[in-house]
Structure prediction request, 168 residues.
Amino acid sequence: MIVMDEDNCMVDVARYFIEFLKGESCGKCVPCREGLAKLSEILTRITRGEGRPEDLETMTDLAEIIHDGALCGLGRSAANPVLSTLRYFKDEYLAHINDKKCPAGVCRDLIKYTINTEKCNGCGVCARNCSTKAISGEKRKAHTINQELCVQCGVCEDSCKFGAVTIR
Ligand code: SF4
Ligand code: SF4
Ligand code: SF4
Prediction:
């Protein structure tokens, strides 16, 4: 059993499982081999903010084709992560595709780290830990993040003890 909460992105979870199953597929039959590769490609695109409105229908059709055409149990159940996340978390897919947002704050290409100036005390820990030197600011004054240099690694959020780094 895997327990998840609102900090888990269901689109990314589906992408992870499909990617794993793609690697497990022996490749003997076309629906499983090619279908999983296509599902993985679509899910990856969506998590990068490149989803298209027709992707959801395409994935549903693909999932049915994989289920009906697969020769063994792996292929027949392989698309379940897509079908169940689409059934119960469709709003998350729509947020990625239409709003280019990841509600859970997981998909790197769709999030932005910022520093809350009210909470930041200018301790400088985040700036010292940022490998791309994206954070700057004077001692004991609120720091800021240069979005051009930020690679969304999340180190600043982990290292700030004052909860001043937020994800948007
Ligand atoms: S459904 Fe089974 S037999 Fe067919 S490619 Fe997938 S793993 Fe191989
Ligand atoms: S670690 Fe937190 S409090 Fe310290 S400078 Fe960075 S954002 Fe501000
Ligand atoms: S997310 Fe990473 S790269 Fe971006 S400001 Fe924070 S530590 Fe630097």
Observations:
- The chain has two domains: 10-98, 112-167.
